[in-house]
Amino acid sequence: MAGVLQALGKAARCDTSVLLLGETGTGKDLAARKIHELSARRASPFVAINCSNLSDALFESELFGHARGAFTGAVHEKSGLLDVAENGTVFMDEIGELALHLQAKILRLLDKRESRKIGETRTRIVKARFIFATNRDLYANVVSGDFRKDLYYRINVLLIRIPPLRERRQDIYDLVAHFVDRENGRNGVAKHVSAGAFQKILQYEFPGNVRELENVVARAYVFSESDLIRPEDIRFDHEHDASDTGSTRDLLQKTLRQCHWNKTKTAVKLGKSRRQLYRILKKFHLDEGRAE
What we know:
The chain has helices spanning 2-12, 28-38, 56-64, 81-85, 100-112, 138-144, 149-155, 172-187, 195-202, 209-223, 237-241, 245-258, 263-270, 274-283; strands spanning 18-21, 46-50, 65-66, 78-79, 89-93, 114-115, 124-125, 129-134, 158-161, 192-193, 228-229. By secondary structure, it is of the alpha/beta class.
């Protein structure tokens, strides 16, 4: 990762658009934040928008904002993320998922450096810096007609590839130590990882990359009964999904207790969304537990 970190530092010294490429879970969002933190814009906001999570209409409203009465349900004026960012950084994740007509709007935004709220005629100057990310082969999408060629060359000025975890296995030690230290700080204890547990982790390929490793460590932290995380505490995602009902229920209950029945914190600790957590709680009849 030394070369990647060096590239992030160089990208931070200019305002050119950056394109981060990497598999899901490699830490593209962390890389974008690192560029922002190292740049002269660090005192201004860092705002992120995931292009794959929003409908077309909602994406425009989130990015540009809308005027009161611009459409049904728009009872109040809304500031867009471009307004919130001001002189900071806008991070557009999964840019490859964006529909073609929205790609045209992003191209115009980058070329004109102007934005206009939905339902307004007044334009605003956009001063923010843009960072993009995708796990797709954008050039292949250009060839297939799924991604605009002009936008591809507009955002692909500084290209930084984030390698998957399997190609930088030496980083696993530091990442595990970081995740355990973070959990220790949250829980006020001092757990550490045994050599055997590290060996088991190193033998796994981690198709989910750093995000999956983070989940594995968080799960092991909960399962461990002492201050030492042992090999039997390490449960990978496929093992966790196939585990028996009792083990899964025990994990849920233990995590809920550690988080004082705060479901938002529980979801984060288990690497789940709130919606996923509520489905699991309902499955194991834990949804009627203590309120947050």
